[in-house]
Every structure is written in C-alpha cells, then in structure tokens.
Amino acid sequence: MFKVAFDPIYCHPLPEGHRFPMAKYELLPEQLIREGTLSESQFFAPDALEEDRIVRTHDKTYWEQLRDGTLDRKAQRKIGFPHSDQLVKRETIICRGTVMNAEYALANGVSFNIAGGTHHAYAASGEGFCLLNDNAIAAHHLIDYHLMERILVVDLDVHQGNGTARIFENEPRVFTFSMHGEKNYPLHKEKSDLDIELPDGISDSAYLSILDRNLKELIQRIEPQFIFFQSGVDVLASDKLGRLGLSIEGCKSRDRLVFETCIANEIPVAVSMGGGYSERLSDIIEAHANTYRIASFLYS
C-alpha cells in the first residue's frame, strides 16, 4: 500500500488570483478518500526539512534570505508569490514530503506527494511559484544516503523543468528528461539531458507515441535505479496556460504508460503533482485523481 504526502498548510495567504488553483490541494485528498481510491491511513503529514538538507542543494545565502524574509523585491517578483513565513515553511514541508516519498517508493514501488514538483527553483533563486526544488533535494538524498548512481527525472509538466536541469547540469548521476511545450514558459529554456519540445495543440496519440519511444529508450540506455515523475496536468487542452491538446483520457494514458514502464523494469518511482490550471476545477481534480487511481490499480 503506497503512501501519499499531505499538504497540511496549503492555504497560506495568497493574492486573489492564486486561490483557485491552490484549492486542489484540499479537494484532491477528499475526493480520493471519498471514492475509496485511498484510505486516510495512506496519508502522512511531513515536518519541515532540516536546513543542512536544503543547503545540500540550494545556495546557503539564498536559503538564509528566504528563511529570514530578506529577499529583495525583484527576487520576490521572480518567484511570483509575496513573501511570508508560512509560504517558506510550506515549501520546506513539501521538500520533506518528497524526500520521504523517495524512501517510501524504495519500500513500496511508488509513492506520492499531493503537492511538490517545484521544478522552476534554481540553486540560488526561485521563480515560477517555486522557492525550493523538491525533486532535486530528494535526488541528492538518494545519492547521499543510498549511494545511487543512476537517477532519472521524468518531467511531464507542460513547462520545462528549468531549475532541475540547471541544478544537475554537471551531475552525471542524475539524468533530466523534460517533455514540455515548445512555446510555453519559461521563455529561456535550460539544457536538460534530454529536452523534447512539443508543438501547440499536440494530440493524445502523437504525445503518447513520443513519450513511449523516448521513455523506453532512456530506460534501456540509462538503466535507472530510481525515477522522479513530475505528473503535471497542465498538458490538458482545457488548461489556461498549457497550449497542448491532451484530453483527460490522454493524460490518464500518459500516467499509465509511465507506471507500467516502471513496473516492467522494477524501478521505484516517486510522484510529484506539478501544475494544473484548467478553467474548471473539476477537470483539474479529475485529471490528478486519475494518476492515483491508476497507481492504486497497478500497484495493488
């Protein structure tokens, strides 16, 4: 039975325009428990991550400015959120959740963070609503405590995992794979180990064919010991920021493809939620819930 990190303080103060997408962090667990996909016992609420683990990945000065509330206004604008102590605490909890996810995935095959996927955070700066990079921190945890040498990041959010790519650009033990919208944020793309830039409006069949071919080739070539899967649902045609053309069923097939590949190759996988900004909140919840439903079925 796999574990899921719960976001206990999702509702920190935010400007009006950010409150709608944040609602999914409360509604998704409720939906999954109500329908019987998950039980309450599968959820865990992480504590804040220790500072020494944060500065293993992030610049010490940057972390201290976050912690002490001394980031200048330009740096705060780049992040996109107004600074608050609660926001910083939430980010450290998210990162702890993904570190614990990595441990649970080693034990159970798969594990989830109901939040996470903060892939725009660089070592010395934040951007795109990301302060700290949870998957990067967790990958360093696996390197340091489990001596892993072949970690694969599969980032299928519609936006390139630019922060993750930069953090690991000179780290041969972590291979970064980002499959994202060519014309989407960020304007300046970093160089992942493998970037696949997708055209606007790409169909389910074309998307799945590209993913299937490249993921299987990477598995064969890299032989990863562990996978971090960023499962953003901003790939949907209904997404306000996405520009791609996937249906909810297509997004569901994407997740099935990733999980079945991991199972077939006996690779543990830690899943972070990533983005989702469709006009209807129900579409966001349904697409995210499908990721958990498929895992519940395949890993039962």
UniProtKB/TrEMBL annotation:
Ranges of residues in domain Histone deacetylase = 18-289
| Any one GO molecular function term | histone deacetylase activity
Entry keyword S-adenosyl-L-methionine: no
Q: Which InterPro entries match?
A: HDAC_classIV (IPR044150), HDACs (IPR000286), His_deacetylse_dom (IPR023801), His_deacetylse_dom_sf (IPR037138), Ureohydrolase_dom_sf (IPR023696)
Alphabetized UniProt keyword annotations: Hydrolase
Pfam entry (one)? Hist_deacetyl
Q: Which family does it belong to?
A: Belongs to the histone deacetylase family.
* Protein name (record): Histone deacetylase
